[in-house]
Amino acid sequence: MVSYRILLLSLLLAWSGYALGQQQTTSPLPQTGKVKSLFLTPATVYEGDTIPYVKLPTVYIFKPLKFKNKRQQKQYNKLVRDVKKVLPIANEVKRAIIETYLVLQTMPTEKQRRQHLKAVEKSVKEQYTPIMKKLTFSQGKLLIKLVDRQTHSTGYELVKAFLGPFKAGFYQAFAALFGASLKKHYDAEGEDALVERVILLVESGQL
């Protein structure tokens, strides 16, 4: 299992951490000295009037699942838990890839880009090793697929783009030893249809 965690970590070798924060604006009330929290709301102009614009979340309605037995229901419950644990990591990968790519575009020389990727590699190892140690084998395989879903690129393609074909080939061969593949695509309408259903429900807050 440790070897497989090393494989999963290879997916993230080109990516640095990326943190997002939410800001809250405060404004003192006149004459009272009290502080009131103000939350900015998007607005739109309709027939000359400015009105608040709130985008409601999408609500998904699926045909109820019918489980043949308790074992099948238990497998589904496990899938829900795995998606909730792995999906945030895949989203983080997507944000980190975008940030890393943009930073590399600002560097004029290949030497500077290589140095930056080495620094990123060190940062990723420090940040993601504790996370990867907590993943099971099935969660690791799910992560490989969700990276493809979120980035529209397989793990193999991403490693090749950032670290070169040699490392991509090495990690792919390493994955094959454990019955996995970095070239695996996410199939939302095929074998991953149930996973897609769970993801949509999780993202909409229905699960």
Quick overview:
The protein is built from 7 helices and 4 strands, in the order H-E-E-E-E-H-H-H-H-H-H. By secondary structure, it is mainly alpha-helical.
Characteristic key phrases:
207 residues; mainly alpha; two-stranded antiparallel sheet; 4 strands
Explain what this protein looks like in three dimensions.
By secondary structure, the chain is mainly α. The chain has one domain (2-17, 71-203). It is built from seven helices and four strands, in the order αββββαααααα. It has helices spanning 2-10, 70-105, 110-132, 137-151, 155-163, 165-176, 193-203; strands spanning 25-28, 35-38, 43-46, 49-52. It has a two-stranded antiparallel sheet with strand order 1-2. Strands 3-4 form a two-stranded antiparallel sheet. The longest helix is centred in the middle third of the chain and has 36 residues, at 70-105. The chain is flat and about 55 Å long. It starts with a helix and ends with a helix.
